[in-house]
Amino acid sequence: METIHLLFLAIAALAVVSAFNIILQRNPIYSAIGLIIVLCCLAGLFLTLYAQFIAAIQIIVYAGAIMVLFVFVIMLLNVREEESRTDRQKYLKFLAAPLFLALLAEVAVVIRFVNMPAPAIEDPNTAIDPSQSLGTVESIAHVMFTDFVLPFEATSVLILMAIVGAMYLARRDSGEGAERIEQALATDAAQPPVAVHEDSGH
Amino acid sequence: MSSILNSIDLQFILGSLIKTAVFWICIMIVVAYTVYAERRVLAVIQNRLGPNRVGWQGLLQPFADLIKFIFKEDIIPFAVNKVLYLIAPVVVLVPAMMVLIVYPFGPRNVPLPGGEVLSNMLNNFGNSLGYDWALDLTHIDLFVSNFNVGLLYIFALTGLGVYGIVIAGWASNSKYSLMGGLRSSAQMISYELALSLSVVAVLIPAGTLDLVKIVELQGGTWFGFIPKWNLLALFPAGLIAFVVYLISAIAETNRVPFDLPEAETELVAGFHTEYSALKFALFFMGEYVNMTTVSVLATTLFLGGWQGPLVGTYPWLGLVWFVGKVFFFLFLYIWLRGTLPRFRYDQLMNFGWKILLPAALVNIVIAAVLGVLFL
Predict the structure, then answer these.
(1) pTM
(2) In the 8-state DSSP scheme, what is residue B222?
(3) Does some domain include residue B48?
(4) Domains, chain A
(5) Is B76 helix (H, G, I), strand (E, B) or coil?
(6) What is the ipTM of this complex?
(7) B229 and B327 share a domain?
(8) Residue partners of A191: CB distance under 8 A and separation at least 6
(9) A68·B185 Cβ contact <8 A
(10) Nearest Cβ partner of A72 from B149, B159, B185?
């Protein structure tokens, strides 16, 4: 057994423990921290598979950006403990166990019967041409901008739509707020001269 | 176990450990004396003396401060969330320090004085334990590690530091801490965008994310006297990128004039209001290590890292140029702190989103067009 396999197992074990932590904790902020640890562990697993770029992006996007928003919201709403359980979906929990077993069986079948050929992985640091070795920025960029350029551009259009949608929702609210404030200011501005007039009248 | 100890990884692991330890101690000393320099320089700017009692000209002040922090009473307020309150300073400091392994301090293959004696000693020690080691320390690289995504690694880890601040603000269970934590995270998320995008203009001439290679590519001169730094590459794209980077870096490290998370006139001390003794010192160290990191990154990306005159003949001189350039940026931080007033919060957000971010985006287009035309 090589060192890298030991590392892989250790990181995978930590990931599983943290994943259990997510669902077993009652306090949402502990769950969020568990999720952050899982995401960092996944980055570690990618590293042991020589996928350096994906490891870095995993931490930047998921742990560094998305989870910050999660933690932000939990803190702003100051959710202390899980709210008392609503039993509207009480039948769902009986479905959970069979679904979990089905997933487990599926994974076992894939591991047992599907023989994927291992890709030829060479260490990117010692590779002569970095664009030829798997997992480097160069090779991923090359594939992304040649073979998969259409899905890539389609994704960016999708993200643009999401941004425009978010802007529209946020703007409409603030616009109405601004109108209300302007109306209030207008009525306020109309009142004082009357008051001054009354005062001077006495 | 013996198979692991005998493998060729040994030289790499052992060398990395030793180098990390040495560089870590150096960075800690730099941090300690940056604090000292800050107090002395600010004192000069404000026309007073500053700490000059402990040792000659107060040079032992950092150690006195450290001892004071260690022996102070360690107060844990009653209403805090204890686990998170204790974890937060560690979460700030550890990612900040992990960045250290990709700093390019100097060139590759530098002859180490006494390296032959050292490697003989280590090899004899290994042989006496029954392993056959063949370590070669006569030439060493003046960086711990270089990898394909070095720059992204730095961005990933500095991005994790924000959790420490957010958690500290929340776990302290106090208004001022929470306000400071929220402000800080909002500010760091906003300016992180401009910071990362400004760097793209440098990556176009460099063509790699590996910090060591980025520095190596900046060797030599144009027309015999202009250094081939990325600052001047693809003119004016490099220059605009440098300005955007510098401003966002100051905001990213929560320093004056963007120090709203710890604005003492409104928030007491921001997210670390409830922290005392060594835990406060850890936050402080984290902030200064982050300052060092953005200074190192500015040096590496824009000012040619260890490149400078005579490095080819005397490789150790690279270390001197590198440290000199980093200290220039650290001095700039202190200078700005002594000069500028603090931004208002809405000004800070407007400036980040409406000026810096569009400037960085337009600059990428400029750099790309110039890159296609001239590279």
Answers:
(1) 0.82
(2) E
(3) no
(4) 1-81 (1.20.120.1200)
(5) coil
(6) 0.80
(7) yes
(8) none
(9) yes
(10) B185
